[in-house]
Design a protein that fits this description.
By secondary structure, this protein is of the alpha/beta class. About 30% of the residues lie in helices and about 20% in strands. It has a four-stranded parallel β-sheet.
């Protein structure tokens, strides 16, 4: 079973409620039934649509350590919801036969290599989102949709 950011599978979970993140390569193999669509932000209790959110002064690792916060563009602190979503995702990954995760790059939850810098000016920096950091810390292989190739996906799917 592979955890996949639900927005990449065309599910309306992206912060603005659109499906603009649908990934054609991932969709090509949906019929195999080996994906478990997840949205850590929804698992943490946030609605869709929701205000844009960025990690302030840090990355997912710092959020998990309690030294960085997550706020929306209106200034509301949503750190607790992001931590809860990451914890729920870890719980799911421990209860299901999860072998890997394919997550949405630049997301404050799912970013694997890159996230936005907290300025709400579309500036990208190196770092993991909260859920990606949680999975990584528990030795679950985490991949971005941007690094996914057909060969790698077929390998992850056992094809």
């Amino acid at each position: 079973m592979i955890l996949v950011s639900s927005c990449l599978l065309g599910i309306h979970s992206k912060y603005d409620g659109t499906t603009m993140n649908e990934n054609s390569l991932l969709m090509k193999y949906c019929h195999l039934g080996k994906y478990l669509p997840i949205c850590p932000e929804q698992l943490g209790g946030l609605t869709t649509p929701r205000a844009p959110v960025e990690i302030i002064h840090g990355s997912g690792e710092e959020v998990l350590k309690g030294i960085a916060k997550i706020k929306n563009n209106l200034g509301k602190d949503v750190t607790a919801e992001f931590r809860k979503g990451a914890e729920q995702l870890l719980y799911i990954s421990q209860k299901m036969p999860v072998t890997a995760a394919i997550l949405k790059e630049r997301s404050p939850s799912c970013g694997v290599h890159k996230i936005y810098d907290g300025s709400f000016k579309h500036v990208v920096k190196e770092g993991k989102g909260v859920a990606a950091a949680m999975l990584y810390q528990h030795n679950i292989p985490v991949f971005s949709e941007e690094e996914m190739t057909e060969e790698l996906l077929r390998e992850l799917l056992g094809l």
